Structures are given as structure tokens and as C-alpha cells.
Recover the amino acids of this structure.
């Protein structure tokens, strides 16, 4: 029998109808995450055809993309920016009510970015198939789940049938040897991986991250890595579950409890690739050689160590255009470039360890004059936890804004945008042209690099602030 | 879904690589709850100047390309966000097919579910098509792209990959939900076997 990768095991266990030359496989979906932006048109299809939601109990709904993050004293004060966003939010509330789905809405303490609350609630578990109308669904692969982003038509398919039609993707192992140096984080690692394989290097593949450096990461770090698999074009990213995973899940709301949890852990321990499993492709990265990484261009593959001069390249349309947009010059290091806005947040880097790393650098220091720094927790639960630990005081005393949870400035759908021409150093996942606002220039970095840059007023090496 | 059997059309070249779905349709247009009208936001930050007027330099704003319905780009078109608003915007604007040497997975899947044909061809063919507008004949029946000369005769025919099931759905103009619903017995049987929140097959 052919040796199986982690991906093979999860895929094979969810095939309802096998694929043939003529037909894709029917794949069962264990958990469907939905949010306000990519679901309304899918509910419209259900309504038009008179279909119910097949499994409301396997559907986890929240609102995150267009929700305001402006600090409010009470829920009644929340002001949605713009009439169409307000209408979209009302539509989400109506859809969930009508189709019997529990919504983690404005009044819920469990509200947050969809890829943060799934794991936080223990709904994300090893071996599950998880989908969402959002490309960063790859985040959940950190638990050894097969998790990938889908379009709205497919959201409708899952709502109606709890299944998807899928062709089996290829597999790629990303073997990360060595250990990360101090000041170098999971974010730096995944940026380096994307730089290595390219923004389309993972197209058609599911990535499995393996090796010592991955094993040493906490769950937040593994989620950061898997989150950005899509930025390498991959369908999904996965990490085999281990004790770190099981400890994270123990006692979470939807995780199995007591003896049932022990039985689940026994099953989950089998979720690793067989020793001789063959991947379609393997790539090796040496973690110990990495420095803090920052992007300098307009896609996440245009990345460089923060302390190194931007590479000189033979003239190439995309390259020239990207540097022109970013107003950066080859041959010069990006460190020292003035920063206007600092954003710590998003499904990539808005978990408790990310906020702690930010606080460790900001503590007792001041954000540079003229720099606006926003710190947006990934969920209301993280907000509460950070406040209980006193982190919000560290942030506000440093001069940063401490806000409500949501996607916020990662994509600027909720009014949190960067003005044209301004440079933002951001812990989010995409530095595309205009991603954070029309004409905004984005430098992607780790929370530590973002915090160091906020203090310096220019792109800075976090190792100087440890 | 609109049926797609054959199309004779003119191409327009957008010679850029890694065009992400944030460029195709920026996030500020995603607060809609319908599929209609997204063509207004297509490539909005490239099509319009900061005062909101069309940029006369941008290729889609040039009158000679007004009738083009096939978009040609460099590799990795449609990367980034999974927003299906991207193919909806392209279709609403009037495009029927996109040609590139590589097309991102989620965009590729979303396009096929809406009758926008994603055509993957070699770098050489892309290079040829980027050089100037071409008249092309696209057949879903034979999965071929024919490049026509001015007289309308075929100069070159290229096969492109298309999954058999997607091809069937395009030719018949049917969406895939009906097929999935037809699998309900198998789905119910699977769900009954694995009704627990954890899958004992693992």
C-alpha cells in the first residue's frame, strides 16, 4: 500500500464519492466558517431554490471584515462605516436567523476574525476538513486539518449539501531545519519561505510544514505560517498535530472533554505522514540562517532581510513597477525608510503571543512623533485576555491605539485605511497595491519588527530593541 | 450559468504578472450583497485617476479595445483573495475568457462556476498574444484556442487543459449544485457513519 502523507490521510477520510476522469470527488466538510462578505449571494441561491442549510451545527458564523474597530463604551455605540456595509451586516443577521445558524455578532463575546475564533473555540481540530469563503482559511491547517478558501458559489454548495466537488491537489513538503534566532519569528519564516518558492510556487499544491523549527513553534506561530500558505499560491498548508496542539485544544469550548478528549488525542496522534510518504515536491529551508524579514514590493514574495540592501535586478516590468509604487530604490536597505502608520493585527498576527511580542518592545517607550500605531486584537476574547494582562496599558502609554477586534486595516473594508502615498508597516498578509487604501504602500513584517519601527519612526530591526 | 460553447472574439493585453484579485476588484466594492454591477469596480485603481475620471492611458480605456472580450495577462492571474467578486466583475464588464500562462487556483475554480473561461497556455503563446490584439476562436467542445489572421483564417491552434466535468457544465450551462444534490444518498450515508464531530476513519 502506498505510504500516505498527512494530507492523504485527511483527504481520504473525507471522500464521499471518489473522483474519476470525468468527475471530481465529493468531499465531506466537517466545519464551515462563514462571514458577512462572501456569504450573502450564497444564501440568495438557497432562498431562490427553497433549500435549507444542511448542517447549521457545523456552520460557525461571525462578522469581521466590515466591522468597525473604533473603541466604544457600549455596543449601542458601534457605527458601521457606510450604508452598504451596514446593509451587509444586517443581511448577515437576517440570513443566520432565517437559516437557523448561531451568529457570533456584535453582542457576542466570541466575535472575532473568523480564522482566530475557530481555533480559539476549539472548533478547529486535527483531521477535520474546514472551508470558508476566505483565502486565509489555510490558517486552520496548523492543527493538522485540511483547510482551504473557497468562492461564494462553493459556500452555497457547502451550505446546501455540506460537501464540495474537488480534484485532489498535489503535495509539497516544506522542511524547515535548524532553529530560529532571537528576534526572528514565525512571520519572518513564512515570508522567507514565500520569497524562496515564489507567490505561485505552491499553486495546485497542499503544503506540509515539517522539521525542527516548525515543531518548536507554538500554535500561534504555526497558524501564522499556515495562514500565509495562500500567499505562495498554495491550496492549503498543514502541520502534523503534536502535544503542543493537544495542549492548546484541551478544555476549549468545542473540543472533546475528559475521556472523550483522551480518545480523540489517541486518534489525532495517527495524523502524521508515513515515514516513506512521497511528496510531489520537497523544499528545504535553514531556519537558523534567517533574519527578520520585510517585504519591499507589491506581493508577499518580494521580501528581504531587514538589514540587507534591496537586491539589484535586471530591468523587469513587474519589478520596476513594484519599486516605483513603493518609492524604494534597489541597492539601499529598506531599514531607515520613514513609516507613517503601524498596524498590528489581522488573522496572521493578532493572537495573544503577537500582542505580547508587541508589548515587550513597546513597554516603557514611546511611538515616534507623527506615527499612527493601531493595535487590533484578533477577537473580543483576545482583547479581554490582553486587558487582563495589562497589555492595553502598555500600548496606550506608548501612544498606540488599542481597538476592538476585526480584520481592520488588513484590507481596509471597515474604514480603517492608510492614506494614499503613506507607508504602513503591517503585520498582515498582503502588500498588494492599494490593499490598505488607495495608493497606500505596505511593508509586511512581524509584530516585533512593526513595534520596533513604530518606536524608530522608520523601518527598523527589532533585534536592536530586544 | 450562461452556456459557453464557442466564442469568436478579440483579445486585449494587460502585460503584468501576479495580478491579484484586489486589483481586479478592490475590497471597498465588496460590501455588496448581490452579484450584479461589479463591472464598475473592475480594475478600479488602474482604470480611474484619483479624481474619479477614467485614465486615458490605461489599456481598457482606449477606444480601440472597447470590443475586446478576452483578457490576456502574464503569469499567475487572479492570485490572492478568494473573492468570487473578481470573476463577477470581469463578466459584468463584458469579459468571457482570461488567458494566462498560470491562473491562481481559487480564481480558476470560481471562474468556471460562473461561465468565465480560464485558459492556461504556454509562456510563448502568452507572449505572442501580448504583442498586439488578436482575433481568436475559442472552443470548449474541443478545448482549443485558435489564433486567427485578419482574413479570419486559423493561423495557429493551441489545446488548453479543462477538467471534463467543468467542460460539461460549461457546454450545458448548468451549475454544479444540482449534481451535488443528486449525491444526497451517498452524502447522507457518509454523514450517518461519521455523525460524531470527530471522524473515526482518521
Amino acid at each position: 500500500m502506498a505510504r500516505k502523507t498527512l494530507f492523504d490521510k485527511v483527504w481520504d477520510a473525507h471522500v464521499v464519492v471518489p473522483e474519476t476522469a470525468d468527475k471530481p470527488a465529493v468531499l465531506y466538510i466537517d466545519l464551515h466558517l462563514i462571514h458577512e462578505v462572501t456569504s450573502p449571494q450564497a444564501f440568495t441561491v438557497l432562498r431562490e431554490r427553497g433549500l435549507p442549510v444542511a448542517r447549521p451545527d457545523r456552520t460557525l458564523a461571525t462578522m469581521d471584515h466590515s466591522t468597525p474597530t473604533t473603541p466604544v463604551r457600549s455596543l449601542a455605540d458601534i457605527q458601521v462605516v457606510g450604508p452598504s456595509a451596514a446593509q451587509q451586516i444586517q443581511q448577515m443577521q437576517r440570513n443566520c436567523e432565517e437559516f437557523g445558524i448561531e451568529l457570533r455578532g456584535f453582542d457576542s463575546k466570541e466575535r472575532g476574525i473568523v480564522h482566530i475564533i475557530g481555533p480559539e473555540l476549539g472548533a478547529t481540530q486535527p483531521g477535520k476538513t474546514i472551508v470558508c469563503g476566505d483565502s486565509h482559511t489555510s490558517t486552520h491547517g496548523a492543527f493538522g486539518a485540511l483547510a482551504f478558501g473557497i468562492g461564494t458559489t462553493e459556500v452555497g454548495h457547502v451550505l446546501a449539501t455540506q460537501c464540495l466537488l474537488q480534484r485532489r491537489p498535489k503535495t509539497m513538503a516544506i522542511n524547515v531545519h535548524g532553529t530560529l534566532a532571537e528576534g526572528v519569528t514565525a512571520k519572518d519564516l513564512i515570508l522567507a519561505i514565500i520569497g524562496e518558492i515564489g507567490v505561485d510556487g505552491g499553486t495546485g499544491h497542499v503544503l506540509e510544514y515539517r522539521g525542527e523549527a516548525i515543531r518548536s513553534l507554538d500554535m500561534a506561530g504555526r497558524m501564522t505560517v499556515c495562514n500565509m500558505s495562500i500567499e505562495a499560491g498554495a491550496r492549503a498548508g498543514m502541520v502534523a498535530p503534536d502535544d503542543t496542539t493537544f495542549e492548546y485544544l484541551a478544555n476549549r469550548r468545542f473540543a472533546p472533554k475528559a475521556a472523550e478528549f483522551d480518545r480523540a488525542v489517541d486518534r489525532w496522534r495517527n495524523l502524521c505522514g508515513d515515514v516513506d510518504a512521497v511528496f510531489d515536491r520537497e523544499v528545504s529551508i535553514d531556519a537558523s540562517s534567517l533574519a527578520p524579514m520585510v517585504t519591499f514590493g507589491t506581493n508577499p514574495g518580494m521580501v528581504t532581510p531587514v538589514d540587507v540592501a534591496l537586491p539589484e535586478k535586471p530591468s523587469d516590468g513587474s519589478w520596476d513597477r513594484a519599486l516605483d509604487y513603493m518609492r524604494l530604490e534597489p541597492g539601499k536597505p529598506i531599514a531607515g525608510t520613514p513609516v507613517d502608520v503601524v498596524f498590528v493585527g489581522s488573522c496572521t498576527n493578532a493572537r495573544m503571543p503577537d500582542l505580547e511580542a508587541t508589548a515587550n518592545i513597546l513597554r516603557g517607550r514611546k511611538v515616534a512623533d507623527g506615527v499612527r500605531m493601531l493595535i487590533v486584537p484578533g477577537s473580543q476574547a483576545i482583547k479581554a485576555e490582553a486587558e487582563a494582562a495589562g497589555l492595553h496599558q502598555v500600548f496606550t502609554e506608548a501612544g498606540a491605539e488599542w481597538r476592538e477586534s476585526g480584520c481592520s486595516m488588513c484590507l481596509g473594508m471597515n474604514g480603517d485605511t492608510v492614506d494614499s502615498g503613506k507607508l504602513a508597516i503591517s503585520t498582515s498578509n498582503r502588500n498588494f497595491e492599494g490593499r490598505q487604501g488607495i495608493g497606500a504602500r505596505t511593508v509586511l513584517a512581524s509584530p516585533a519588527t512593526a513595534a520596533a519601527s513604530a518606536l524608530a519612526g522608520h523601518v527598523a530591526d527589532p533585534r536592536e530593541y530586544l | 450559468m450562461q452556456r459557453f460553447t464557442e466564442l469568436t472574439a478579440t483579445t486585449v493585453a494587460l502585460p503584468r504578472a501576479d495580478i491579484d484579485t484586489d486589483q481586479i476588484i478592490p475590497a471597498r466594492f465588496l460590501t455588496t450583497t448581490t452579484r450584479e454591477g461589479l463591472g464598475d469596480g473592475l480594475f478600479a485603481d488602474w482604470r480611474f485617476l484619483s479624481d474619479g475620471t477614467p485614465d486615458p492611458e490605461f489599456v481598457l480605456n482606449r477606444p480601440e479595445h472597447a470590443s475586446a472580450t478576452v483578457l490576456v495577462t502574464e503569469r499567475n492571474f487572479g492570485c490572492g483573495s478568494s473573492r468570487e467578486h473578481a470573476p463577477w466583475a470581469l463578466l459584468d464588464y463584458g469579459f468571457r475568457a482570461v488567458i494566462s500562462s498560470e491562473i491562481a487556483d481559487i480564481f480558476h475554480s470560481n471562474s468556471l462556476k460562473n461561465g468565465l473561461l480560464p485558459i492556461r497556455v504556454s509562456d510563448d503563446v502568452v507572449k505572442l498574444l501580448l504583442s498586439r490584439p488578436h482575433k481568436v476562436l475559442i472552443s470548449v467542445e474541443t478545448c482549443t484556442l485558435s489564433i486567427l489572421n485578419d482574413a479570419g483564417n486559423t493561423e495557429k491552434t493551441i489545446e488548453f487543459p479543462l477538467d471534463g466535468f467543468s467542460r460539461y457544465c460549461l457546454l450545458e450551462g448548468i451549475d454544479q449544485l444540482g449534481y451535488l444534490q443528486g449525491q444526497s444518498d451517498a452524502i447522507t450515508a457518509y454523514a450517518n457513519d461519521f455523525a460524531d464531530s470527530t471522524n473515526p476513519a482518521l
